[in-house]
Amino acid sequence: MQPAPIPANEIERLATLRSYAILDTACEQSFDDIARLAARLLGTRMAAVSLVDADRQWFKAKVGLPVEETPRDHAFCAHTILGETPLVVPDAHRDPRFSDNPLVVGDPGVRFYAGVPLVAPNGHALGSLCVTDSESRTLSADELETLVSLARTVMTTLELHRAMIQVRQLAMTDALTGLANRAALLHALEERLRGPWVPLSLLYLDLDGFKRVNDLHGHAAGDVVLRRVAEILGATVGPRDLTARIGGDEFIVLPARLDYDALAALGEHVRAAVAAGMAEQGWPVTVSIGAIQFFDRPRDLGAILSAADALMYRAKLAGKDRVVAGLERAAAA
User: Are 162 and 14 in a shared domain?
Assistant: First the structure.
């Protein structure tokens, strides 16, 4: 067996593949229909929409294949992505690249293979639309053109899939800072409320002195402050923590999971980082933070935000540039 060589542009190719956010997703009718149509029109037992990942090929759709993925070294499609034209193997038993391939000598007993590379608009091949059979055969020119046309349909469907993801991401992103927006935060909180309960921690941030920056220097300067705060938060909280700008100069950090003491410490760390970052720029801006943990499941989203907001205002009233922490438990019956 001769595993396919790694393309020279492999790093960029994998980045393109992952930009579609398609790997390991659930079955989708549109892709399944294309695979079934390819097998039916070309009269083969097997067909697949195959995506070639770093060390495997994964089937987004398949007909007649007993597995969800195979090692990349076994993939015919790993050879297909090396070229710009279809790869046709009339008899794998007679092809030294594949004659001892486990997919040939074992299940599913591939003898014939034809694959068309799925090429993204930037020129990187993601995988292939392929048809295979356990009998040797060839394709006519018309059959090959049919496979090429169906591969174009796969790419169109992938582009639509990526566009829908991008639209959803835009709808959940604050345009000024690039952080999650209020809608994204509420969605994350709803997911936490619906799932198995673990204590929920949250930091509610409100900038001190921001209005004065806007009044003295204009909204453009205010926007610079907000973007800088977003950068500081991104560098301060954990990679699994959700950080959102929920409006104006208010931000929320939703840690993945913290105990109460760690939450208070994170709040102080964020407060100090914002104060230092603003001072470096000469901006008289600090942050007041309400740090709250819900030990028991709160009744709704409103209860979460109201309780966190109340703690933040206590920090304001206590002199600003500080953290006030609180622990919420369900009232005793």
Answer: yes
